[in-house]
Every structure is written in structure tokens, then in C-alpha cells.
Amino acid sequence: MSLDNNQLSGGIPTNLNNMYWLFLHNNQLSGEIPTTNLDGLTNLQELSFWGNSQLTWTSISTELGKRVDRAALSSLYKGNNGENWRNKENWLDSTNLFSFSSWYGVMTNSDGRVSELNLPSNGLTGEITNALEVMGGLESLDLSYNRPLSGTLPVRLRNIASLTSLDISCTRVSVPDDMDFQDWLGGDGIDFRRQPCPPPSPPPPVIDEGETEGVQHSEDAENNFSLTPKGEGGSIVYRRRTINISVTRDPGVPSDANPAVVVSQDILDDVRSITFHLSEDSPENPPSGFRLGGLVADIDLAGVTLSAGETVTVCLPPAGDGEESHIYHYDEVSERWERLESETKTVNDVQLVCGETDAFSRFGVFIPVIDEEKTEGVQHSEDAENNFSLTPVGVGGSIVYGDRTIYLSVTGDVDPSSGDPAVIVPRSILDRFQDQEIITFELSEVSPQPPPPGLRLEGFVAEVDLGITLGEGETVVVCLPSAGGSDLYRYNDEGGEWELPEPQLKTVNGEDVVCAEAGAVSLTGVFVEETGGGCAVAAAEGEVASGERAAFNLLLIISVLLLIPGRNLSRL
User: Fold this and answer.
1) Percent over 70 (pLDDT), the chain
2) Are 263 and 358 in contact (CB under 8 A)?
3) Beta strands 114-118 and 140-142, pairing class
4) Which end of the chain is less enclosed by CB atoms within 10 A, N or C?
């Protein structure tokens, strides 16, 4: 029942029926609250009676008090911008109606009544609600640093005997013009704080654009500075202080291959100079499963000692377009490369691979390779265009590529002497494989689809499934053992027919094969011209026959053989 703001007068009726809500706030009610009668409303969830200056109560039960607290908190949330608070976790939770301690900023006493309400800097706006005056268990109220919050503190707050801490610093909330209230605030029984808002922060320091030479720079919203030296580098003027930023290169390092660092304002305050040295080789062995794919950079930030938790972001040119690149830091204590959390981002208009570090020395960009020592049951090779040829031997095995294991599985009943299939995968596609992904080859000596007209299957068909999705225009190359005069056909599911792609005769991992481009899931087979003759015709038709048609073809074969003089039929 909602009768709030309705100019009601007199006492609260005692013959109320059971209800879920009873809102009586901001009226002119008087007399004592009939707590005994209200305790009988077992379904009641919220009870409001604040803003009735002549209404009194000596005590209310714990259970009724929880209903009062929920109504007051609901008024605060709805009246003071709760939907846009910075944190409103579990507020107005309808699952556990009175579990206030799970609400952000709320603590309860042993009886479950609200004892602390702490919502500083949480985006409260509008006039403060007078519902706070009925929260009889309140001990601490902190609404500080909600600058737009306005209105006047409820006078009846001083009647809450347990309230000992009140903070309205940096708000527009005022103190009521009531001498008793002001005496209460000035007494020893309450810690009252009403500090003014601090002055606005001065604008952050900027780099003097007119005094900067040979360094491209930018600043983000968090006052982090991205610094990219160009050519041999140069200098910046920061807070009227010159910081030299230089870069040197070994012979062969492109002059447009520029590193970068991203530093916070606090760190830049201490920097005296930044130096980079770039090379294409590393004296240290690469990390297991990787090889150097980009540059090695020795970096020093003179004058900087990082505190605990402080980091600098180091950025280097990636290995190549679309290639998976990781940035590593060389730890001179452990004498090994340590991988940083790598991210490719645009720094000063250039794509770089970046990682956060808390130490300066040597950094390198590495790309994954197949770890020879950890590879089992798979022959492999890499060509100059970074394409990986993978040939599973027998039933297959696995490769370790960078930090992930990729399995190659071969199933089917094909004679092992028929040779092994292979797949050629570009690095850009292999980079997308996750740990434990499986490439499957399903081999069969019988084609599940009718052969192309005038051709018969030579060897086996292979259904290859990469286990990942390829992008538009992306393909891999599937290879099968070749036979003289044979072509590799690819089955088109949409058209329902075999297609003959441009033939590719290759030697893959030491084997002569015939290859064709294919998608993520493909059916391929090697076919040769039909040689003619009754047996061959019957055999070709037998590959596609089923049911009664297969039985008919078998009788046809037997009939032809009976016509051949001296033919031994004991093997049929």
C-alpha cells in the first residue's frame, strides 16, 4: 500500500491486513507506531514512516526494523541516482531481501540491522533522503566526495543513539538550522566531518612540442607517454628539462625499424635519458619452441629505479604481417629468456608488439617454431615463405609449436604401403591453433562419392579436418601420394561433384606427392583414367553401387569370368 506524500493525519490504523509494502512517509501522521500490529504483517517486505514529525516510537522489533531499513535503503537508491552509481553491487536484491551485508557499502550488526553505510565517491546526486532518520541501528554514515549530493541532513538523525560517525565532506549537503542538532554535531558523542573539496588538480605536464627533435610522442588519458625515437633519435623537453632519446643500429637493421617505450608520468619525472641499441642477432639461445623473428633491443632508462608494482611497456617491430610475435626479456640472473604478456598495438601510428616489464636490459621478438626434440610421429619442414609441411606417419603423432601441442591423427584401413598424406599450413594459420588442437586425416580405399566420369580411384581418398575455421580466401594445401598420370581431385559439397584444381606436383618431406588447395574440411582423392574392360567397368561401378545394385554388379563380374577359358574361380 502506497500512501506516501498524501497529507495523511492522525494515527496509523491498527487493523491493517497482511501486505507486502506499506509506504506512509512524508505525511502528517502522529501518535505511537503500532509495532505489535505491524509485527503481525508476516509478508511485509518494506515499511516507511519517515518524514512524519509527530510520529513517535520507543522501539521496534528486529524483524520489523529490517523492513524499515530496506525501505530506507530503497529510497536512498531510487532518490539519489542509484542506477548510475559507480558500484551498486547487490543493491535492492530481490532474492535475499534482508541480506544487506552483501550490498556494496553496507554492513550489519549481529541482529541484521544496518550498522554502517559507506558510499564515498560513488556518484550519489540529488537531495539527500530523510529516510536515513529511521535507520535505528546505524553507527556510521559516510557520504563524502559525492560532490553533487545536496539537501539538508535529517534533523532526527540525532535521535539515533548508536550513530557515532558522520562524514559529508566534499558534498553540498548542509546542516539544518536547529540548535539541538548543531549542539549534537559539536558534542563528544559523534565524529562529524565536513571537509571542503580539494582544489582541482593542475593540468598534467606536457611535452614541449616546439622543443622536441627526432622523437615521435603521444599521451593517453591516463598520462602515459609513448616515445618513439626516429632515425638516430633526438630529445624531448619535459617540464623544462631535456631528455635525450637515442637509438643505434647494427649493420643490416632497417633505419625505419623503430622501437618505443610507454612510461607513466611518475616514471618520466625521473628519466634522465633513454637509449636503444638494435640488432638482428642474439648471443643467447632462443627460448624453447621459438626462434628470433624480429629484432633484439638493448634498452636503458637512465635515472629510473622502478618501485614495486611499477612497470614500463617496451614495444618492438613485429616479425611480419599476420605472424604471431612474442616479446621476451632476457633475465641475466637466471640466464634465460622470460616471455612477457604480449600485445600488438598501434604506438605513434605504427603497429608494434608490446609487453610490460619491471626490468631493463635485453628484449627480443620471437616467433614459434616446431620443436624438433618434442615432435613424435610427424615429419615436418618449413619453406622460405613460412609454410609448414606436416606429414603424419602411420597413425600420426604430435608436434610442439611454440608453447602448444598440436596433434595429427590418421584413421582408416588403408594399406600403410600406400604412402602418407600431408598438409601444408601457412604460419599465419598455424599461429591460430590452440594447445591440444587436432588435425585429423580419415583415409579410405573406397570413395564415399562417385568418381569423376571416366576415372577410377588410385590409392585412397582423404578427408582432412583442420579443427579450426579459416577466414575468407584462406586455404591450406592437401597432398596425397602420386601415381603416374594421376590428378588430385577435390570434392565440392555445394556443387555435388569432384573438381580438378590446378595440379601441384611437389616433393614434401622426401615424398613425391600431388597437391591441391583446400579448405578447413576437405575431401580429396587421386584418380586415374579408367583402363576399360569388363572387370574394370564392373569394379568402377562397384565402388558406387549399394544394396541390390551391388549384388547385380557382382553377378555381372562372375558372368564375364565364366566366359574366359581356363579361368580359376576358386578365389571368388
Assistant:
1) 90
2) no
3) parallel
4) C
Angle between helices 548-562 and 534-544 (to 10 degrees): 170
Asked if residue 314 and residue 382 are part of one domain, the reply reads no
340 and 226 share one domain = yes
Average pLDDT over residues 445-470: 93
Asked if 363 and 299 touch (Cβ cutoff 8 Å), the reply is yes
**Between 103 and 416, the higher pLDDT residue:** 103
Q: For 202, which DSSP code?
A: P
Q: Are residues 246 and 348 in the same domain?
A: yes
Look at residue 21 and tell me if it is in a domain.
yes
In a domain, 204, yes or no: no
Say whether both 26 and 156 belong to one domain.
yes
C-alpha cell at 38: 505491524
Q: Is the residue at 174 inside a domain?
A: yes
The three-state secondary structure class of 150 is strand
Q: What are phi and psi of 374, to 5 degrees?
A: -105, 5
356, 431: one domain = no
Reply yes or no on whether the pLDDT at 572 is more than 70. no
pLDDT tens for each residue of 366-396: 999 999 899 999 999 999 888 999 999 989 8
Are 439 and 466 in contact by the 8 Å Cβ rule? The answer is yes
Q: Is the dihedral of CA 62, 64, 65, 67 positive or negative?
A: positive
Domain, as residue range, for 260 = 209-368
Q: Quick one: cell of 146? A: 559525492
| Same domain (yes/no): 307, 393 | no
Q: Based on the fold, state whether residues 390 and 420 are members of the same structural domain.
A: yes
134 burial type by CB count under 10 A (0-12 exposed, 13-18 middle, 19+ buried): buried
54-56: strand order across its sheet: 9-10, 28-32, 54-56
Residue 519 to residue 461: CA distance in whole angstroms: 16
Residue 34, pLDDT score: 78
Q: What is the pLDDT of residue 202?
A: 66
Q: Does 153 fall in a domain? A: yes
CB 307 within 8 A of CB 343: no
Asked whether the whole model's pTM tops 0.90, one would answer: no
Domain harbouring 28, CATH code: 3.80.10.10
CA distance 39 to 16: 11
Quick check: helix, strand or coil at residue 113?
A: coil
